[in-house]
């Protein structure tokens, strides 16, 4: 079972920063992250995984000023470079958008992190779908779904092409003859496509794992297809066992149709686990965080979800009839159905949604949590999990001290790293250089 | 006297990587950089300064494969983040181009480095003028000079504007009331200009030095004007004392005309110093590196300089008559004049040019070097220097062990850091937030 430690600054739960033990300045406190990474490495997690958004999240100023999400936090690549310096074995996965970046920069920064960490970098390839991001990059609105994925596909092609600029043994560095690299081992990309023209070569050597591991989180049709063709790790949000198993089978079969081995793509659903020494203690931990969701934050999140401003309705009253919406059709319908099914007030509904924001949430003792992870793992629903501690550092400590030993007792999780690189630890194949490609002179 | 340590991977001299003591894999060896940074910090240098180019340098494959310049090396921001983790006081200056970047990314990454290092980051603002870079960013040729500087000016305006998204004390993080930031202290940029539309705010807090220090190296008319308006440190290449003093006076007077104090902009020329325990030893060190310039590298560099391919001419023969050129007019004329004046062969000419590439080169004992630095410093030519060790780590060790103590004996250089931030050590004013600006709601 593979395990990544997925970190929002103060934790995954929307109210995490208000937890009594939370580091409220977590987003700009690098010692906090250093401690988290060291804890995760001691527990032999595969990787630290950082989300990202190139904008503050939308919402009313009242809600923004209470939510603490993407408001003031480190940029992931600079932060992971620091973490690379203070760890030795754990992988380092950062998110970078294909929508508002240039492939040469992304290829180079991840190659640099991969070299600095001696083969521990991973790139979480995402597309940007919020207007807040578009407005920071000279656009009036965000790219529509199809265009985003077309750009993402070509972006990934350019990045992987740039990562093949050099064969593994290109750099001879022979001082006596004055030969720094073997000209035969340089491969110039010369990419000309719909969205990008990139000549190359990349001015960075290959790393001990060949190239960074590619992670992706697409769940739509085009998203899954892109993942099946390019991703080595798939990060996904699934609620029920049935959905989880179906998604897993779908991704593996799409990968095989794309000519890849099912083993070369690992599916790691997200899980927010509240762990206690007893079930009651775990439930208390959950209830404590839920009670800290400020109504302004919950209402703003729910309003965004249903495409309608609920801030003037009483939070302890019922969900009003909502006007039809174009942009949020399916999420609106799901929210209405959930409120109806469980007879929820507005508060009840946002409490269901805000805490985990779509990710599987489980509450219980170490045995309970291990049972549930084991079930999904053995049922063919997961190759492992992205563990999203509800609050930090406490939620990570709970998982490491209680759940990890239980998983080890069951023979499900490693006691020592298998390899030196992220790729080796994840059990992914080494991406051999396509050196058969005809070498082209740089000019 | 302010001193930065300016590092190319193996050293500033073109043949540095071939030096017997050089780290030939310097560009991808982070332990090498960690050692350099620690040495520079022990000597109380103001900052480590890294150059950058987002492409491999142009030239014949034969010359490229021998020159080792920008071929395989870390990206500066990821590298400086690592260095931030292993140092405490020294500044961290990285180059980032305004031509092929987005201001939001640059503002954010430097803000992140500034927070990680607790106020030690500097941004060296450059424009990109090579075709090799253009071709990596979906362009057929590089932007012409005027357009590059117009874009750079607006870019700098957006970046500094984003760095003012938050007042110093914006983040109250009051767990009890659930208030993370004070909405009154958020300032949304809403920039709409010729090249960029950027709403903001930046999702990063201000750092202990307010914002990163801005460094610039413009020497042309528009370059100097931009520096006078925006730069806090000016990096420049000057040969003679007269030129140095004239440039210094020019920059300071332009800054005053732009409404700034002359003290708020520090001029630091580059200097490549060959230091020995005797003059003869210093000269030997110089001769040794000069003898390691491979003819293919020297010819390629000189050909680029004069705009004419010299590779088929005998290196020990005279410079042939050169056809007129548009792109390289002034550099061609300077090269022809230098060859004529000193009666140089092609080899003699490229040896003059290749080693230091325009920077002031001095050779001598510690006293000689200190004399020359002191002369320029006291004549009003420099507030300090960008020290460019010819080879690394040896050239830095020589400067630190021999020249720095001599400068201290003369009372010219610090024995302890004056402040905690780069800005404090450079003696630059704190950039107070223009909080009088009307606060605007995020939405």
From TrEMBL, chains A, B:
Provide the binding site for FMN: 52, 95, 145, 149, 219-220
Q: Does the keyword Oxidoreductase apply?
A: yes
Cytoplasm in keyword set? no
**Which InterPro entries does the UniProt entry name for this protein?**
Diverse_substr_monoxygenases (IPR051260), Luciferase-like_dom (IPR011251), Luciferase-like_sf (IPR036661), NTA_MOA (IPR016215)
Give every Luciferase-like domain span.
17-381
Gene Ontology MF, one: oxidoreductase activity, acting on paired donors, with incorporation or reduction of molecular oxygen
Q: Which UniProt keywords apply?
A: Flavoprotein, FMN, Monooxygenase, Oxidoreductase
Q: Name one Pfam family in it.
A: Bac_luciferase
Taxonomic superkingdom: Bacteria
Report the family membership. Answer: Belongs to the NtaA/SnaA/DszA monooxygenase family.
Q: What is this protein called?
A: LLM class flavin-dependent oxidoreductase
